[in-house]
């Protein structure tokens, strides 16, 4: 089959002869389709004209999350745990007893954790078995069914903040596949350097000077060093660090406690801080690494000894005081989850609000594989309480949900009436 064209390239028809009759059917059909759908360029072979006039197919741009193979999101189950711990700890807000506040959070977190279908081992908890009756390192958590996971918990990050009625206290936990979470052992403290997703982690290092790191952060963010804000824990040990930051010309935001939330602040959209520097707790560093991995940020850590006794214990455990631990060293893989609920008001989440017959909580939950971040507002109704349409609890729910008929009477402090928006 041959194409018959006029002088202007117009297709006039087809002619079969002995030369073209032996061509494969597929070839002839392709030429025929080209002939019918376009005007062929004069003087060019059919194949060349088709190649130049038909744009190549391109993959469709992503338009949303991939739900083709949905899998279990444990973060949405963990948030019930942090909610319960936050509700318990919030009862002690401003009452001056940080130990009672912490114990209340531990007891409630342990109780709710045990009901989650998983085979978990506490890698970061409330201490060694002989020091903590619950949530101790090595304790098995869950009902024993798959998946097998590592768990890091801080039932109350900010015990002093809670006791003094200050802002920024949260109940927090992280989870990863078994064997993927860094075990700090006897290492209580580490140097930290945390940044958000807009800063290339290859351009900063704990081995570099403060001025070098701040210059790199400024270049990545497209602003001068004088506009860079550094978050630092207010501790005497940071006197030199603060002096170096000021010498470089950067701004400083000091916090008294709660560097898990501080590290997360660097990765939020329109972040109020650009980088976190200084020495803080190693367990908090691992938990922050899980959150930053979910948000696209990064953290570096290096174990730090308070004295020679600490240094000897760290070396005896086989850990290296000079090695820089990156995000992937602290939490390996993308199957990690993070959940935090506010105890007192803070930049990350709002604190617990108590109403007549119930309370509300504000939480953030994250998943590493999809890098999904959810903010969840939950209303809890106390068991046995009687609905009062004029109560603040009922009115608040009605305004959020639009209709009082949608309200639930499900019992229990962890029963969510309205969970996600």
Structural class assignment = alpha+beta
Portion of residues in beta strands equals 15-25%
State the helicity in percent bands: 25-40%
Task: Describe the main β-sheet briefly.
Answer: 8 strands, mixed
Report the mean per-residue pLDDT as an integer: 82
Return residue spans where pLDDT drops below 50 for at least 5 consecutive residues.
14-54, 403-421
Supply Rg. Answer: 30 Å
Gap between N and C termini, in Å?
Answer: 63 Å
* Element-level helix/strand string: EEHHHHEEEHEEHEHEHEHEHHEEEEH
How many beta strands in the DSSP annotation?
15
Instruction: Tell me, briefly, the overall form.
Output: globular
> How many DSSP H or I helices?
12
Characterization of this structure:
The protein has 421 residues and is α+β, with helices and mostly antiparallel strands. It has helices at 25-37, 46-53, 75-90, 98-113, 159-163, 210-221, 239-248, 259-265, 282-295, 308-316, 327-330, 392-401, and strands at 2-5, 11-15, 119-124, 140-141, 148-157, 170-177, 189-195, 229-233, 251-255, 275-281, 298-304, 336-342, 353-355, 358-367, 372-381. The strands form three sheets. Strands 3, 4, 5, 6, 12, 13, 14 and 15 form an eight-stranded mixed β-sheet that branches. A five-stranded mixed β-sheet has the order 9-8-10-7-11, sandwiched between helices. It has a two-stranded antiparallel sheet with strand order 1-2.
Q: What's the short story on this structure?
A:
The protein is of the alpha+beta class and 421 residues long.
Structural features:
alpha+beta, 421 residues, 5-stranded mixed beta sheet, disordered C terminus, 8-stranded mixed beta sheet
